[in-house]
Design a protein that fits this description.
The chain has 9 helices and 19 strands. The two termini are 37 Å apart. The chain is of the alpha/beta class and 392 residues long. The structure holds flavin-adenine dinucleotide.
């Protein structure tokens, strides 16, 4: 029987455990230095669209949307909200996205292209273009995370919370387990789903991935009157995204492209110490009112700050670490790691159990980077605008 340790109980780690447990993979333990979901996962907006930028991304997202439908049936207290997802573009940004339509056609990804009069209840510039994904929508993290955690416990997965992995153990060039403050644990496979903390954890093993983290935030507000139904929306020309939220609220997130990269200072670091720049909330709500006039004057009720991680080429980093058999990574999902989680978990489970995946994600391999380019990426201070502008 295999022993599998997953470090990180965010959506990536929990989903990996879910797919391993479904395949009755052996003894599965998920370890988090805080409570489950303590990283960016509980802070996410959970928006998902299938209309991405690469063949691997589009194929994996299609699988994610299938899995969300299954999870909505299988997880008590969770349902994917299939509102559709509207991706708005300015006239100058649209040609780059329009160039992807033949890829969507070839892969059978469903989409509609609309002109402004059809965007109701949104208001936007007359030259904007909307790419609508009828299958997109969102997951509410406050429902998804507890539902997934409960399903894992019911399936016999051990979830160790408030337990930090201090070291990934190796012998004879392969991974053998992990060490926490209280104990060591033997493992045939270790899946590292530690997102922004990955660099700190793996540096002692000489494993580096060219990934940068950026602070990101979103808000919830209570409208003055009930809002008309509206889809999740990535309003790129306004630098915001929005979706309906629980109890008739509206959620809005805002890009801060001029922010420099954020280095997690130490292994104990907790995202609750991140702060939001003054004025950002007002700016987000003003832009929301421009996009969705019915949300004008909405009263802010909560805010969430976390991290986004971007790799050197903008694509996720997922798969086995070739120089250390038994070690697997899943991170750098740009601002779409929540959306990706069911597929990312399934792919990681397939790598651990079968050594290969049903969808070709070799372009996401942790080993794909040129060492000197990777070192240069890590050494160069970058603002978020200098990485990839990729949303959900
Ligand atoms: C404000 C905001 C809005 C977002 N909106 C969206 C959205 O609409 N759609 C979308 O798809 N994505 C969105 N994202 C991105 C999404 O949140 C992330 O991509 C996703 O949650 C990453 O999940 P993860 O499980 O990989 O990482 P995390 O959720 O960060 O989990 C990593 C876990 O590892 C644990 N850990 C770290 N080091 C150790 C250690 N040594 N030992 C034990 N545990 C450790 C941490 O405590 C943490 O719980 C948003 C992010 C933010 C911040």
């Amino acid at each position: 029987m295999m022993d599998i340790v997953i470090i990180g109980a965010g959506v990536t780690g929990l989903s990996t455990a879910y797919h391993l447990a479904k395949r009755k993979a052996g003894r599965i333990t998920v370890i988090d230095k805080g409570p489950a979901g303590d990283g960016s996962s509980s802070r996410a907006a959970g928006i998902c669209t299938g209309l991405l930028w690469t063949e691997a991304g589009i194929r994996v997202r299609r699988r994610c949307l299938e899995l969300y439908a299954e999870l909505s049936r299988d997880l008590a207290g969770y349902a994917f909200q299939r509102t559709g997802c509207l991706n708005l573009f300015s006239a100058s940004d649209w040609p780059a996205r329009a160039a992807l339509l033949p890829l969507y056609d070839r892969l059978g990804a469903r989409y509609e292209v609309h002109a402004p009069p059809l965007f109701e209840p949104f208001r936007c510039a007359p030259d904007n273009v909307a790419l609508y994904d009828p299958l997109g929508g969102y997951s509410e993290p406050s429902q998804y995370l507890p539902a997934l955690t409960a399903a894992l416990r019911a399936a016999g997965v051990a979830i160790l919370q408030y337990t930090r992995v201090e070291e990934v153990l190796t012998a004879n060039g392969a991974v053998t387990g992990v060490r926490t403050a209280g104990s060591t644990m033997r493992a045939d496979a270790v899946v590292c789903a530690t997102y922004g903390w990955t660099r700190l954890l793996l540096a002692p093993l000489g494993v580096t991935v060219p990934v940068k983290a950026f602070v990101h935030q979103r808000f919830e507000a209570e409208p003055r009157a009930p809002l008309p139904p509206f889809p999740a929306v990535n309003a790129n020309p306004l630098g915001i995204y929005a979706r309906p939220a629980l109890e008739g609220r509206v959620l809005v997130g805002i890009e801060t492209l001029d922010r420099p990269g954020f280095e997690i200072p130490d292994a104990q670091f907790n995202l609750s110490s991140l702060t939001i720049s003054p004025g950002l909330r007002g700016m987000a709500l003003d832009r929301l009112a421009t996009l969705l006039p019915a949300a004008g004057g909405a009263r802010p009720v909560s805010e969430s700050v976390g991290l986004l991680t971007f790799s050197l080429d903008g694509e996720p980093v997922l798969g086995p670490v070739v120089q250390l058999p038994g070690l697997y990574l899943g991170l750098a999902f740009h601002s779409g790691g929540f959306a990706y989680n069911p597929g990312a978990g399934e792919l990681l489970a397939q790598y651990v159990l079968e050594g290969r995946t049903a969808i070709d994600v070799s372009t996401w391999s942790p080993s794909r980077f040129d060492a000197s380019e990777a070192a240069q990426y890590l050494a160069t201070p970058l603002r978020q605008s200098q990485t990839f502008r990729r949303r959900h």
